[in-house]
């Protein structure tokens, strides 16, 4: 029983990282209106930025978060310039293929620059374990949960309460109308894309800290998890994507409790397939639209 | 105020606008009428910079806006209320109105509040629905919201694309009354309508578009009594 409850905590913690990835993913997809396959690499670069920051500046989590966010923001700008800017009026698959190619480029460049080995992430958080009743939770997990919750709250406040957020949501819903009310759609879309990427970068950093390793090809699985979580949430819905991420994390960890850790990804994707068979639109309910 | 000379627009190899020239003077209601595919909406899209032009010149307040970016054109004070409303479906009515203020950078907080009050007065229905998402409104309410959103930037000129499309006759009447009130507030109105008799009834001047050309022009009275217009657009 204790094992299961600990795995549950594990799952929630990992799920919350997936949730953060998926939030970033949905923001990108929602605002640019185009699917991205560069997200994994963006997250990987966020992790590396944090890795080097920790090497140089020591155990400073906030600085790490900032570095990951900023690095991914910059990559997001590059992605936007290369893959989206020219293709707003083109069919969607063109930018999609472009993001696939760009992700390969980044991945291979990263292998050249950072090396192809796994780097041990510095242990920046004390390995302290707290026992609460039947569950034990360590400090790292608490920190990760806190970071995710704080970031998600800040993002949600920004999107819902500020004028900038309203504008971002506006362009995600109706680009033509956004032009007509005088919004600079292109530059706003870029900022939106960068925010999504920045959040992804922080998620990548958390993932690297959680597994205490970071390597150039870590983006692959992460982007699949982010994509699946996002699909569960209906692609563009930030909140439901977060729920999707949490579900995948918990299912994965409960699944491997009863079998072997090798089946981790199998559980995640089987769950995705099952949900999509029953509810092709994911968790999303179309709100506010007239049939 | 707005002057369009020899405007040409192509969609691929289809010529949507062959040669359009017309003028809108300050504080008047000008209407463009014509059948489907005559190029009415394309003309508005061209003014807003949403389609590429192959030729011609558009000036607004003496400034050449032919090749300006869409948001810059809006910032000059031209509000475009698109065909089919195109409100933001998942934003609340209030948020929809707030996006309207993006088009005018000089708005102060105070002025913004005044403008909001103006809209509530013009469209009392919107005040009741303030926290409802835009997509859940009825067609007429959505149209009102779209117009109110356009007015939120305090424009010099507002362009309305088929505001009566798909609305019940009684709502259409309401919308047309409102257009007259907008003009009385000191705004210039460029109105596109298929409902030619209604449009000409409130407009000062009108232009009849046929196949991407200006076929007829004149004051509304002249057009209303023109035999050709009567036959083709007024169903008489």
Polypeptide structure, described:
The complex is a heterodimer of chains A (291) and B (236). Chain A has a single domain (2-278), classed as ABC transporter involved in vitamin B12 uptake, BtuC (Orthogonal Bundle), CATH 1.10.3470. Chain A is 74% helix and 4% strand. Chain A has eleven helices and four strands, in the order ααααβββααααβααα. In chain A, the strands form two sheets. A two-stranded antiparallel ribbon of chain A has the order 1-4. Chain A is globular, with a radius of gyration of 19 Å. The N and C termini of chain A lie far apart (48 Å). The model of chain A has no long low-confidence stretch (mean pLDDT 90). Chain B has ten helices and ten strands. The radius of gyration of chain B is 17 Å and the shape is globular. In chain B, helix 3 runs parallel beside helix 6. Chain B is of the alpha/beta class. The A-B interface holds A 163, 166-167, 169-170, 173-174, 176-185, 287-290 and B 48, 50, 69-71, 74-75, 79-82, 86-91, 95, 98-100, 102-104, 133-136, 149-150, 153.
Indicate the topology.
The complex is a heterodimer of chains A (291) and B (236).
Chain A: H1 2-32, H2 39-57, H3 61-84, H4 92-114, E1 119-120, E2 129-132, E3 135-138, H5 139-161, H6 163-173, H7 175-180, H8 185-211, E4 213-214, H9 219-232, H10 238-258, H11 264-278
Antiparallel strand pairs in A: 1-4, 2-3
Chain B: E1 2-11, E2 14-24, E3 29-33, H1 40-47, E4 55-60, E5 63-64, H2 70-75, E6 78-81, H3 93-100, H4 109-122, H5 124-128, H6 139-151, E7 157-161, H7 169-184, E8 188-193, H8 196-202, E9 205-210, E10 213-219, H9 220-225, H10 227-234
Parallel strand pairs in B: 3-8, 3-9, 6-7, 7-8
Antiparallel strand pairs in B: 1-2, 1-4, 4-5, 9-10
| CATH fold category name of the largest domain in chain B | Rossmann fold
Outline the low-pLDDT stretches of chain A: none
Instruction: Provide mean pLDDT of chain B, rounded.
Output: 90
| End-to-end separation of chain A | 48 Å
Instruction: Give the H and E element order of chain A.
Output: HHHHEEEHHHHEHHH
Biggest pleated-sheet summary of chain A: 2 strands, antiparallel
User: What CATH first level of chain A would be assigned?
Assistant: Mainly Alpha
The average pLDDT score of chain A comes to 90
How large a portion of the residues of chain B is in β-strands, by DSSP E?
A: 25-35%
How large a portion of the residues of chain A is in β-strands, by DSSP E?
Answer: under 5%
* Broad shape of chain B: globular
Structural class of chain A: mainly alpha
Strand count of chain B:
10
Helical residue percent band of chain B:
25-40%
The succession of helices and strands of chain B, N to C, reads: EEEHEEHEHHHHEHEHEEHH
Fraction of residues in helix of chain A: over 70%
Name the overall outline of chain A.
globular
**Number of helical elements of chain B:** 10
The largest β sheet of chain B comes out as: 6 strands, mixed
